[in-house]
Amino acid sequence: MADCYTELEKAVVVLVENFYKYVSKHSLVKNKISKSSFRKMLQKELNHMLTDTGNRKAADKLIQSLDANHDGRISFDEYWALIGGITSPIASLVRQQEQQSTS
Ligand SMILES: [Ca+2]
């Protein structure tokens, strides 16, 4: 990876690479994450920001809500909706802190 990337650019690359890390390599369905790989990703990569990642029922519920086209797999767009969902509360928190520091 280019060393000249900004912090933000590096973060974007990490997000994209994380998706492909969990894409099923041997599946006939290309560029999608299976339910079991997605559960693994929640547990391994998001266990501080999401609660209940080890709970199979809660994970399945999350997968269901993200699986917009109901094919039982998570596409890049569907994965991106998860990232948006996680970052939105962080954005509110940052806004709150900024308001507190200026008032
Ligand atoms: Ca899907």
TrEMBL record:
Domain of life of the organism encoding this protein: Eukaryota
PROSITE patterns with a match to the protein in the record: EF_HAND_1, EF_HAND_2, S100_CABP
Gene Ontology, cellular component aspect: cytosol; extracellular space; nucleolus; perinuclear region of cytoplasm; plasma membrane
Keyword Hydrolase: no
Subcellular location: Cytoplasm; Nucleus, Nucleolus
Keywords linked to the UniProt accession: Calcium, Cytoplasm, Metal-binding, Nucleus, Repeat, Zinc
GO molecular-function term, one example from the UniProt record: calcium ion binding
Broad class of the protein's primary localization: cytoplasm
InterPro entries listed in its UniProt record: EF-hand-dom_pair, EF_Hand_1_Ca_BS, EF_hand_dom, S100/CaBP7/8-like_CS, S100_Ca-bd_sub
Chain ranges of the EF-hand domain: 54-89
Gene Ontology process terms (BP): response to calcium ion
Complex formation: Homodimer. Interacts with TP53.
Name of the protein this chain belongs to: Protein S100
GN (gene name): S100A16
